[in-house]
Design goal:
This protein is 30% helix and 27% strand. It starts with a strand and ends in a 9-residue tail after the last helix. With 292 residues, it is an alpha+beta fold. The chain folds into two domains: 116 residues, 2-Layer Sandwich (D-amino Acid Aminotransferase, Chain A, domain 1), CATH 3.30.470.10; 160 residues, D-amino Acid Aminotransferase, subunit A, domain 2 (D-amino Acid Aminotransferase, Chain A, domain 2), CATH 3.20.10.10. A hairpin with a 2-residue loop joins strand 1 and strand 2. Bound molecules: pyridoxal-5'-phosphate. The site of pyridoxal-5'-phosphate (PLP) has 13 residues, from helix 6 and strand 13.
């Protein structure tokens, strides 16, 4: 079965889904995106993703490509036409096509691209059950990381460097010596008192949708959360550490640089959160009540 993509009003075979060379997304990374998990054919935390998309667009003064209702129809169609049961939906809005000039001309029509692909949930579960290593790296990104912008070169470089060191994720460390977040995930630890610690929202990190939903899951499980920054040393000495994202859900961290976290195995709190998160997401319960 061939994959289909939505490109500016048309559903096209993946191989023929192309955009103009003067799309500002291509020339200036002038655009934003969302990645949304699909479980059982449903978009998980759909409304949270749409809210964040609208915030990212507003921050860059890119008009919405269509109404929320129309966008939901397109997203649903891409999932349906690709027969996705468990997968990922990718959507990207760029400012549109114009003669190359930093200055934004008036009246541009934003471009919308939506794709979807399947994921192997069993492989993701196996990865979580093994736990992952992370590598700390200097924060080299811009100062508006709250905008989910498509310019991801520092994130790509960090992921490559982490991979070369045998780690699955990079954790950025800012000039104050504090962890901001992962290259494509939010960073969490469980402290000696059993509290979850994750950096507070600001321009320094992306407001992860999984982070947001997990705050609800944690409350449901009676786990206390402290929203503050932590150092790599604190994380290395923590009881547990884990990452969150729409693609990793909750995945335990078992090593940070050369230091094992806890006993070097996935922590019980992280695993409990993962199970509860997925269970609630599938059932459309808790913070996930908004999904399609
Ligand atoms: N932080 C960064 C830099 C990301 O790129 C992502 C996801 O792509 C996240 C955090 C996690 O966000 P979400 O839970 O919405 O996937």
């Amino acid at each position: 079965m061939s994959r289909l993509a939505y490109v500016n009003g048309r559903y096209l075979p993946h191989g023929q889904a192309v955009v103009h060379i003067e799309d500002r997304g291509y020339q200036f990374a002038d655009g934003v995106y969302e990645v949304c998990a699909v479980l059982g054919g449903c978009l998980i935390d759909r409304d949270f993703h749409l809210e964040r998309l609208e915030r990212s667009l507003a921050a860059l003064a890119i008009p919405k490509p269509m109404s929320r209702a129309a966008l939901l129809v397109v997203l649903g169609e891409v999932v349906r036409r690709n027969h996705i049961v468990d997968g990922l939906l990718y959507l990207q809005v760029t400012r549109g096509v114009a003669k190359r000039d930093h200055l934004v001309p008036a009246g541009l029509r934003p471009a919308l691209v939506v794709t979807a692909r399947r994921i192997d949930l069993a492989a993701l579960d196996a990865k979580a059950a093994r736990g992952i290593a992370v590598k700390t790296l200097a924060e080299i990104r811009w100062r508006r990381r709250d905008i989910k912008a498509i310019g991801l070169l520092p994130n790509v470089m960090a992921k490559q460097e982490a991979h070369a060191a045998g780690a699955a994720e990079a954790w950025f460390v800012d000039d104050d010596g504090l962890v901001t977040e992962g290259a494509s995930t939010n960073a969490w630890i469980v402290n000696a008192g059993g509290q979850l610690v994750t950096r507070a929202l600001s321009h320094a990190i992306l407001a992860g949708v999984t982070r947001r939903a997990l705050l609800g899951t944690a409350a449901d499980l009676g786990l206390a959360v402290v929203e503050r920054a932590f150092t790599p040393a604190e994380a290395m000495a923590a009881r547990e550490a884990f990452i969150t994202s729409a693609t990793a859900f909750v995945t335990p961290v078992i090593r940070i640089d050369e230091s094992p976290v806890g006993d070097g195995r996935p922590g019980p709190i992280a695993m409990r959160l993962r199970l509860a998160y997925l269970e609630q997401a599938r059932a459309g319960r808790g913070a996930h009540a908004n999904h399609a």
